[in-house]
Amino acid sequence: MPKQIGDIIVFPLKEISEKLDITTVTLRKYIRQGKLIARKWGGNWYVSEDSLREFFNTAPGKKSSRKKKP
Asked: What's the rounded mean pLDDT across residues 39-60?
């Protein structure tokens, strides 16, 4: 279930993996490679709606144009 923090909507990796029919391991690989921007919060990884849009609008094989967050 997405969470809303102010005007930011974030999705847990588990939900994204179920919707896209890929594993959370694959999603974490994309995060490590810089293809998908995510934040660890309370022991779980979350991806913002904006990061998901950018991921799908970026050509395959290219890294996100945004800098990786610590």
From this structure: 91
